[in-house]
Amino acid sequence: MSGGNNRKNEAGKNHAPERKGNLFVLSAPSGAGKTTLCKELLKHFPTFRFSISHTTRQPRPDETEGVDYFFTPEKEFLDGIQKNTWAEWAEVHGNYYGTSLTFLNETLSSGSDVLLDIDFQGTMQILEKYPDAITIFIMPPSIEILRSRLRYRGTESDEVIEKRIINAKREIEHKNLYQYIIINDKLTDSKKELFKIVNKHLS
Question: What is the pTM of this model?
Fold first, then answer.
């Protein structure tokens, strides 16, 4: 009889519930280097799942469905708001953007870690639903350096750059919402700091 009990105990050990995934949220003003750091993080931690946003705006010529965004009809998106389909959503310049609640719940429950690239408004909504989310804010060393980086891109007019600076200041005002703040002066140092934070929570 004791052998049967041992077998039951062994089976119980083998079927212990797996760990739940961690939800990492990265936010930053435009030009602070968040996109680069997100790519570096996904390269270094290949098991991470990146949450692809849904949007009602039209795809640009170089964008791919399911890679850059899920391009969603406006009616479907608005229905989703009524049905609580979105973990977070916002209207930006007349278009809607949102994160799928189903994707987050299913991915985290399966034990996979998820990376979310959203702004502070989205982060506030996420923290209401996922208070254990690990939140990281990427800061430029200064507003002047941020302005220089945006100009160096050479893709936007001075008027657009100044709008981005105003938005950046607004984002930075909410930096204390986040658990961690990384000042992205040198990419190598910022990358090390980001990996250290992630490893801390994975261990």
Answer: 0.85
